[in-house]
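User: Modeling request: complex.
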Amino acid sequence: MSGQHEGRLDHVWAAEPRFTARTPRVVAARRLHRRRDREATGRFLAEGPQAVREALTAAGGVHELFGTDDALRRHDELVAAAVAAGVPVSPVTGDGLAALTETVAPQGVVAVCAQRHVPLAAALAGAPRLVAVLAGIRDPGNAGTVLRTADAAGAGAVVFAGDAVDPYNGKCVRATAGSLFHLDVVRDGDPAAVVAALRGAGLTVLAATGYGDTDLDDLADDGGLTRPTAWLFGSEAHGLPPELAAAADARVRVPLHGRAESLNLAAAAAVCLYASARALRNREPRR
Amino acid sequence: MSGQHEGRLDHVWAAEPRFTARTPRVVAARRLHRRRDREATGRFLAEGPQAVREALTAAGGVHELFGTDDALRRHDELVAAAVAAGVPVSPVTGDGLAALTETVAPQGVVAVCAQRHVPLAAALAGAPRLVAVLAGIRDPGNAGTVLRTADAAGAGAVVFAGDAVDPYNGKCVRATAGSLFHLDVVRDGDPAAVVAALRGAGLTVLAATGYGDTDLDDLADDGGLTRPTAWLFGSEAHGLPPELAAAADARVRVPLHGRAESLNLAAAAAVCLYASARALRNREPRR
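Assistant: Request completed. Predicted assembly structure:
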């Protein structure tokens, strides 16, 4: 993953003073661990080389790249991308890095990124064939994992609806493994309005629920997954609110063949999204 | 979830002294949080009413049921099941419970369960149509989640192979959400021998790997999932060892439609196991 010309761009940053945990810009960036400060500034932190790389090529942009000497030398290609994008590169001490990261083994680089708020109407204008709606999902790891899976399944947008977690929460960002930067992330407070807008845009709206009256395999066999589709997923603890499930075109259950009482949210979402991906793919020539 | 006759069976336990964190039997049970003590005793802890319920009906058996007064009263049906199975019921104080549990909000009951070691040959004698092999998966949450998904997809056995996590690790047990008690759990140190035994029993062995040369959808379209199948899954950090992937009948990748670099382990396993479940189901009348 490291650049071929390790350290070639040292001159960009090596003469700068090293920022510490008390340097005002590090102190300010560190506050982005808190939702309140993320919302006030429209910024968030992406840590680790993979996320930083994606952030530097994404539409939203990056305000600043922090890294230890070692990491900046190792990831010369990130420094090059930052320079190309006009992003300041700031070397930090080990404790400066620790202040900016949440993981036990941070990989040396952190970017201050701009949140990119895509209104639902703008996301729908792109005519996505697959959309995932996270309705009130509070767990950041679950939300980020479903977003990552949605990206892999070819979704064009993920909607954080209702009382869902902040998509820019550090744990959520890490769980997306870079996918946060690949698709339209929409935040909308009112799940019922989201469903109405999705249907208005011509999408079939399917509620994923263990109590659904439609079996996923039957739906696939009957051709019910070949149209552009939005899947609604609820929290693992509370499921989908009944009125939201009722507003969907169908309530779909993943079949349980063994004696498990249920699937966890990430597994159920993977099965549903990939059932759609397969049905949508069968309508076009194989890549 | 509570019994219809809450507290009817108080007489079974109410006159007993309340065990505390210092009572020798609680001290001994608490040691089961450590792998070394689990292996030495062949016992493990299952916490929460759902897991305790499953444990009491499973083949392995339960050595003792601990619970707070409140929880034992609330879960009279568990007390009834324990009495029916000849399992001692021991009331514990709040700190006694805290010593036995690992979660922030324990739900009041913990069972000391017997590990049930099913040799691979015995599991294969049951002619399972679907088997999941966890090859060197170290993360207990991931391993437990895949086991739960395998149960839901109808697997008859899950094999913890190589340097995999202890299936009786507390976090793994909790992630299985009771499914640990539903299927044959096999532990086998040598993944290569596992693959040979699976193939010897007539199972098709498929290695799930992001670098596989066979596309999962193509395999399903070509009828490659209609025979009894064992899936090999490697750790998220290191994947499957190349020699193990090479020993499988095919190396299968879940197609990536978007820009995600990969799926996480639990999502990839869910997609693979459910592709098999659907193909196997299509060969028999719908339930």
